[in-house]
Amino acid sequence: MNPDKIQNTFDGKFWNARYETFRTGWDIGYVSPPLKEYIDQISDKDLKILIPGCGNSYEAEYLSKKGFRNITLIDISDILIKKLEKKFENDKNITLYTEDFFEHDGSYDLILEQTFFCAIDPSCRENYASKMKNLINKNGKLAGVLFFNDNDDTAKDQNNEEPPFFGSESEYKNIFKKYFHINVMEVCYNSISPRNGREIFINLKVK
Q1: In a domain, 100, yes or no
Q2: CATH number of the domain bearing residue 134
Q3: Rounded to two decimals, what is the model's pTM?
Q4: Pairwise CA distance, residues 6 & 133, whole Å
Q5: How would DSSP label each residue in 119-174?
Q6: Which H or E run contains 78?
Q7: Is position 55 within any domain?
Q8: Could you tell me the residue range of the domain that residue 120 belongs to?
Q9: What are the average pLDDT values for consecutive 10-residue runs of the chain, which has 207 residues?
C-alpha cells in the first residue's frame, strides 16, 4: 500500500447508499452553466480529459456530443458506474473506471472539477491538489467549480459530517498555489439560481 495514501472517509459503500436512496441533492440533472460555457470555448477535440468523482456525468455526455474523443470517467461507486456503462455503452469516446481517485494512474491534458472536491473529506484537500498535479500533463489544466462561502468561520459552520463540504476562497488559494498557477479563481457569474454566489470557477495550470 502506498504510505502516502490518504483514506477518504466517504468510500464506495457510502456513495452506493447515496445513489441507491437518491440522496444526491447536488445533482441538477444537466451540465452546469459554468462548465458548459468553459467546454464551449475548447477547440481541441483530442484533449485527454478526466472527470473524477463523475456522478451522473452530464458533462461527459455534453463533451461527447460536442465531438471530444478522449474522455475518462472515474467514480468510487460501482452501482453508479454500472448505470453509466449502460448509458454510454455505444459511446466510444468515453472510458469508465470504478476506482478511488487517489489511486488512479494516468496522464491528462484537462481535468474537470464538478462537485467532486466538495464530496471528499476536507482533510484530503491538500492531497487532492497534489494528486491533480501528478495526473495533469505539462501545460495541462484543472478547471471547474468549487462550492464556497467567503468567510472561513461560516464555511466551517456549513460543513456537517457529510458532503457537500464548503470552504473559503482564501483556503482554496493557499491549497492550490503550491501546485498550480492560478489563471482564474473567481465567483461564477453564471451559476444556477440556488448556487448564486456560492460557486467559484477555477482555471489552474500546473507548475
Answers
A1: yes
A2: 3.40.50.150
A3: 0.86
A4: 16
A5: GS-GGGHHHHHHHHHHHEEEEEEEEEEEE--S-HHHHHHH--SSS-----HHHHHH
A6: helix 78-87
A7: yes
A8: 12-21+30-206
A9: 45 66 69 96 98 93 98 94 95 96 96 92 94 96 91 49 84 96 95 87 97
